[in-house]
Write a structure and sequence with these properties.
The protein is of the alpha/beta class and 145 residues long. It has a single domain, classed as 3-Layer(aba) Sandwich (Rossmann fold). The protein is built from five helices and five strands, in the order E-H-H-E-H-E-H-E-E-H. It has a five-stranded parallel beta sheet, with helices on both faces. Strand 3, helix 4 and strand 4 form a beta-alpha-beta unit. Bound molecules: 1,3,4-trihydroxy-5-OXO-cyclohexanecarboxylic acid (DQA). 1,3,4-trihydroxy-5-OXO-cyclohexanecarboxylic acid (DQA) binds next to loops.
């Protein structure tokens, strides 16, 4: 089974952007972690990052045809995008939401995520290990059918 791992805006700057919040690992490191974790779980991770809302929506729609689950860090679009929520609501497989930082102990505007109303599970504050945890849970949900 294929799991789409989608990363939203500014996550291409991981490792350079506010490392005190988001850590030192790059997007390349995170994608490698996702691919190796997925392989260990008998999954294939298809990793994509975009700064554009429409591109993330197109990939979520593509996942309806090709994926068994989505792991998504919608980044700032978590807090703003009804369109990404609607795209995820059109998917009938597991969706796991990841935030590297603990959004609940940050600014007020980060504490609501539209995506959380669809997500099967939400992981926040575990750093990039959150992606590994998300894939582990996605594998369990895919296995459970
Ligand atoms: C983030 C948290 C968001 O509030 C922020 O806009 C991001 C990254 C995280 O991974 O902690 O870009 O999703």
């Amino acid at each position: 089974p294929v799991v789409y791992v989608l990363n939203g805006p500014n996550l291409n700057l991981l490792g350079k952007r506010q490392p005190e919040i988001y850590g030192a690992q790059t997007l390349g490191d995170v994608e490698e972690l996702c691919r190796s974790t997925a392989a260990r779980l008998g999954l294939t991770a298809e990793c994509r990052q975009s700064n554009a809302e429409h591109e993330l929506i197109d990939w979520i729609q593509e996942a309806r045809e090709k994926a068994a689950a989505i792991v998504i860090n919608p980044a700032a679009y978590s807090h703003t995008s009804v369109a990404i929520l609607d795209a995820l609501n059109a998917c009938d497989f597991p969706v796991i939401e990841v935030h590297i930082s603990n959004i609940h102990k940050r600014e007020e505007f980060r504490q609501h995520s539209y995506v959380s109303s669809r997500a099967n599970a939400v992981i926040a504050g575990c750093g990039v290990q959150g992606y590994e945890l998300a894939l582990t849970h996605a594998a369990a949900l895919v296995r459970a059918g």
